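Collaborator request, handled under Task 6.
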Amino acid sequence: MPSLICSSNYGEQVKKQVLECLYGQEQLKGPSMISAMQPTLKAITREELLKQEDKDVKVLLAFCFSETLRITAPNAPFGDDVLRDIFYLIFSALSGLRDLHSKFYRRRVSMLETCANIRFCVLMLDIECDDLVTTMFRTFLEVV
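Structure tokens returned to the collaborator:
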């Protein structure tokens, strides 16, 4: 994967490079797929990406993480601390579901479906993030 460079078209670079790798990918069938995903996983967990202020980049990154968790379920390929940050990012992105006309609405709906299908709440409880479960339900109630 080409290196991601911070620039004015940073969001587009992230979108093209990472979404192409993840979107539509079936669930992993073996350890060789996890090895194949390592460059992508390393790229999307870079601190400068996780700390991005651009809202579009945050939504796209949350979608990438959601897809990664779907593909690798039931085993998340991230440490507990990174996973906690990922869930906060995903729920932050899901708060935009109330905007039905957003260019990312369909991606947010897809993240919501993934959240239900792979049971994010169970993953959060497994890593002892009870506060995240509260955040998740608060986000969903605010959107409704």
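The cover message to the collaborator said: "The CA atoms of residues 75 and 143 lie 29 Å apart. The chain has one domain: 10-143. Please let us know whether this matches your experimental observations."
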